[in-house]
Design a protein that fits this description.
- By secondary structure, the chain is an alpha+beta fold.
- It is about 45% helix and about 15% strand.
- The chain is built from 15 helices and 10 strands.
- It has a 7-stranded antiparallel β-sheet with strand order 6-4-3-2-1-5-10. Strands 7-8-9 form a 3-stranded antiparallel β-sheet.
- It is elongated.
- The N and C termini lie far apart (about 65 Å).
- The N terminus and C terminus are likely disordered.
Length: about 425
């Protein structure tokens, strides 16, 4: 019954169904009551609409937050939240990276919606929207249709996710009018990757992971609204206006934001960022390398090379798998694959069988890494999350391996 309550309220009553199905001895009174109901529905305060945003969560996939629409009819005690949510499964991250994640439009009692985020320690902020009575009704009908009749759909971080579906529903409700944005940050007028500093400013490791795994598809420039994400949506819509087809303009927001749930998770910046960690790693690599160039190989150098080789190999295998098997639009090619590949591990395994070839490989690897560092201004992935420092560290160690082989005239035994 609750599932169809909204449809009953706005379709059944509006069509006069109540009067037709319930005969009365006072048709004039019934007609007045129906007329009053229809008049109520045209009041601006009969339905209230808010865009809700949930604060970022701890998992990397929730680092940008979540968005939903809240629809209330105080006169009838109705309070629902509508959201487009991904289907949670044990292989959630794998589904996302392989481009097979699915989502579903969901209707929840607002109390249940709040409780869900209370359990995760996340906060919820709302912004009332300045829609007309007719737009309110159309929006509720659109959301009900999506929740009741639209099944599973692809969930795609680039074009079909929680924000894009909520924005799309509002745009459908305002019909021929359009949303005009004002004072938008420069980061929201470029590429998907360009939004990372703003999207993940409190989660630098999430930014590093997405930057590493998402390839050239994230360097495209989509329409502005596809670059919106939950943590900036309320700020953007506070400044936005609705422009009607006759040119009349009104604020999209009907008031100031309000806190629906206070976050229990303390939003602290990361104590150690990728940039800081890789800067320390580069300093350690330089110190060890200077010692080895003067005194010969060290156990610390072999340990450092082993850690770097293991990391490069694992990332390389993952990138290769994504390039070959993923259907995600952002993973068709990744410019970091030539430097994060399983090839160094293969060379290490063949070091005793092909010593001359292995020696040349480390020289070429050093050259390739240095070229990538020089090309940082034109390779977007190199410009984020300390990637330049990491590649400089790899270049320092590959050059040292080559130097040690030449100096000792031994077969390569380290990375």
């Amino acid at each position: 019954m609750q599932k169809r309550l909204v449809t009953i309220l706005f379709v059944f009553l509006a069509c006069g169904g109540l009067a037709a199905q319930e005969p009365t001895d006072a048709p004039a009174d019934e007609a007045r009551r129906l007329e009053q109901m229809q008049a109520d529905m045209q009041r601006d305060d009969y339905i209230t609409v808010s865009i809700l945003t949930a604060s970022p969560g701890l998992p990397v996939y929730s680092a940008a937050g979540h968005a939903a629409l809240r629809m209330t009819c105080p006169q009838h005690g109705i309070d629902y939240c509508y959201e487009f949510d991904n289907i949670v499964s044990p292989q959630l991250m794998a589904d996302f990276l392989l481009g097979r994640m699915q989502g579903l439009f969901v209707r929840r009692q607002t109390a249940d919606f709040i409780d869900r985020y209370r359990q995760e320690g996340r906060g919820i902020t709302g912004l009332p929207l300045n829609l007309t009575a007719d737009e309110d009704i159309r929006l509720w009908q659109v959301l009900d249709y999506c929740a009741d009749s639209v099944g599973l759909q692809p969930f795609d971080m680039m074009s079909h996710q929680c924000v894009s579906t909520m924005v799309g529903a509002v745009k459908e409700a305002i019909a021929n009018a359009r949303i005009s944005y004002h004072g938008t940050p420069e980061a929201l007028h470029g590429t998907y990757r360009g939004t990372f500093p703003l999207m993940f400013k409190r989660a630098p490791w999430a930014a590093f992971v997405w930057n590493l795994l998402m390839g050239t598809g994230f360097d495209t420039e989509p329409p502005h609204e596809l670059l919106l994400f939950p943590t900036v949506l309320i700020d953007e819509w506070q400044r936005a206006t609705i422009v009607d087809d006759d040119g009349a303009e009104r604020p999209l927001a009907a008031g100031a934001p309000y806190v629906l749930l206070t976050a229990a998770i303390i939003d602290k910046p990361a104590a150690v960022t990728p940039t800081l960690l890789f800067a320390i790693l580069l300093a350690v690599a330089i110190v060890v390398t200077l010692w080895e160039w003067r005194r010969g190989p060290l156990p610390a150098g072999r340990l450092l090379d082993g850690v770097l080789l293991s990391g490069v190999t694992l990332v390389g295998l993952l990138l290769a798998y994504l390039i070959v098997f993923s259907h995600h639009a952002a993973t068709s090619w990744n410019w970091l694959f030539p430097v994060f590949s399983p090839l160094p591990a293969l060379v290490w395994l063949l070091r005793h069988r092909c010593p001359a070839a292995c020696r040349r490989f480390w020289a070429v690897a050093t050259l390739v890494l240095l070229v990538y560092c020089l090309l940082t201004p034109v390779i977007p992935q190199m410009q984020h999350g300390g990637m330049l420092l990491l590649l400089l560290t790899l270049a320092v160690r590959t050059s040292t391996v080559y130097h040690n082989i030449i100096k000792s005239h031994l077969k390569p035994s380290t990375t």
